[in-house]
Amino acid sequence: MEFSLTTLVTIMMAFGLIATDTYVNSNALDFEATVASKVSGQGYSPAVVESRFIDEIQRLTDVRSLISSPTIRSSGDKSFSMALADLANMGAALRDIQDMVGFVPPRLHANAVVENDVVRLLVVGHANDTGLVEVDIVQEDAETFDVVIQRAAREILIRIDPYTVVLNDFNDMLGQPEKLEELEDIVLAQIARLPKAPVNPDRAHLENLLGIIDLTQNSLPEAEVHFRDAVSFDPEFHVAKLNLAFLLVQLDRYEEAIETVSHVIDPWYWPHESDGVLLSTGHVIRGVAQWGLENTDGAQASFAYAARLHPASTETFVYWSNLMEVLGDEEAAKTHLEQARQNTLYFENYPEVALLYFWLTEQDKEPLQRRSSEDDLTTGTGAN
């Protein structure tokens, strides 16, 4: 069955295929490689280079995060609309159509060349948020080409999504106090590379990580500065607002904490934030703040609502158990603690979110304690 170009475009537009395809793949980049014959002769065909480059990108982006990272896929993995166009032998025509209407998936192209017996890997492309990106990696003495590919993947990802690369380093290094200064330098270096702008989500995310580093060092005033900066650079970055509220509770500024967290969990329209983990986190923070103000009824209601939003939460049931023990309801305390222990099977540790990385206490002037999947939940919060 033959399709004319006009018929094909009409069908795709009618079913919204081009627009849908672009939306679904808005955070994906197509990647393809070409290699010199000398490089191919060493076992690095275009398919091998593509596979190893994409594997390295996947490794770098395989971090627990509430912020999505880009996906890089082989250009041979066709989208639905492209597969339909190829069926009609019009794949090239569809690419031209996409160019005309602005529905062009971001692309990267790697070219392995040999110059004066030195192998180089040049990667050039275009990303939605960053525009033109390019890196030029030269193979060093005694370095395998696999390492060249790994270095190129990291450098490209730094340019496309610096936050994910930093977060990968962050997860590896945050548990090593001797490396905190190095970690802070890595974050600051990425901030220095960002364009100057009053609204900058990348800057907000990195400022938030600096605040978490300060919490690790119990440098609470410094952490407050970074969390406030994060909110300033991206007023819709709810994670930073929750972290600021968490910090205010830790500083015993309970009413200010409740006001701050209300902007996330009690907006004038609903839903303002659809992520159950974040919403649950906000209600737990408010519950601990209410507990600090001796509003135990309000605290119980907040913990109960947090549990409905995120039943697999550990922290919700720990704080709820602690509160019930203080109120003398041993049976309820035991029940909630048992639920918390069961939920450790689903332990979550997103380092962007302070409540999921540290224990919060309603007690005055208590230092922060780091969370762990192996915590004794009866002592982990300092609230008992």
Protein architecture, described:
- Helices cover 55% and strands 11% of the residues.
- It contains 17 helices and 7 strands.
- A 5-stranded mixed sheet has the order 2-1-3-4-5.
- The chain starts with a helix and ends in a 14-residue tail after the last strand.
Chain-wise SSE layout:
Elements: H1 5-14, H2 17-24, E1 28-35, H3 37-40, H4 46-61, E2 71-74, H5 80-87, H6 91-101, E3 107-115, E4 118-127, E5 131-138, H7 145-160, H8 162-173, H9 180-193, H10 201-216, H11 220-233, H12 238-250, H13 254-265, H14 276-292, H15 296-309, H16 315-326, H17 330-343, E6 358-359, E7 369-370
Parallel strand pairs: 1-2, 1-3
Antiparallel strand pairs: 3-4, 4-5, 6-7
Percentage of β-strand residues: 5-15%
Q: How can the largest sheet be summarized? A: 5 strands, mixed
List segments where confidence is low: pLDDT < 50 over at least 5 consecutive residues: 11-26, 80-85, 379-384
Radius of gyration: 25 Å
Distance, first to last CA = 74 Å
Percent helix, as a range, is: 40-55%
Features:
384 residues, alpha/beta, five-stranded mixed beta sheet, two-stranded antiparallel ribbon, 55% helix, disordered C terminus
Overview in brief:
This protein is an alpha/beta fold. The chain contains 17 helices and seven strands. The strands form two sheets. A five-stranded mixed β-sheet has the order 2-1-3-4-5.
